[in-house]
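Why do we care about 3D structure at all? Because function follows from shape, and shape follows, mostly, from sequence. That is the central idea of this module. The next example makes it concrete: a single protein chain, its amino acid sequence, and then its structure expressed as tokens.
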Amino acid sequence: MAASTDPYSQVTDDDYIKVSETENDEFIEIPKEDNDSIMLSTIQTQFPDAIGLKFRGSSGAWRAIRAVDNIFEPPKGGWGDKAYCVSNSKEPDMKKRKSESYSGSPERKRPTSSPYLKDMFVMGLPYSVTTDELKEYFEKNYGETAYCEVKYDRSTNKSRGFGFVRFSDAESAREVSEADHFMEGRKVTVKVKQEKPIKMFVGRLPNDVKKEDIEEYFSKYGELKDVYIPQPFRNFAFITYANSEDGFRVLRDSHVLDGARLNVEERKPDMRGDPDRNQDRDRDQYRDRHRDSHRGRDERASRDNHHSKYGEERKDVADNLKSMLFNFITQSR
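And the structure:
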């Protein structure tokens, strides 16, 4: 069977974990090793002062990731879709960073979600090409790179024939994605990771809210593809982000619009409905049962009336027969 030629057939979202310097920073996707571990050296390519990894547990407390020989093993249950933070040898001024990166919803600075500022997949590399040679090729022809790495097999220390590159400038990355590349006479493919849209439910909207108000508020988190308010208005709406990362960023915040605290959640295909719609459904079911009850009562009353009239008609017939029989007997005498 022929091997797949799709560069992304070997790489999925499960090949990465999300890492940021603090909870309020935009996260970066860090590639895993073949055995599902993460190397400290890989993290330090993005966070030079990093010495560890941590995440928020269900209790709200920080939990550290166990490391052996500078290799981080996945926590119990796997890495999952959690957002991890680094532990730094030089802890930043948290209050200063928070004030710089977040000034209070909805006035926060919109983070970039351009796919051209993220890791690009490089496939078809000659096995002799090193990380330094790959970096030199891109920077000589297209511009500065923020990250560049050829992936190696840990057991044999040989190149696996692919790697990753991220550029400091989006235009350089766009140019790279549209160009043909050759190294040592072999064609090399560079592919941008595809964006995944995400649809979200927004509940508890204020009564006088407009579509423009929702667009203005949520567009600060990323590019909105659609804003839909069902009619008649029942205090909820649906929004769709072009990039799922922007949607997940929204979920990590609390939201207040015109004094109303919003309920925001991802709308998955298998969801049965939002709370407002469930209330409407229950109200409709009650109305149907109430209507059926009235209908049943009316039908019983109609039947009783019918039987009553029929009974009266039979009584009249019996009385007439008795009268006829009495007249016949008296006349025959």
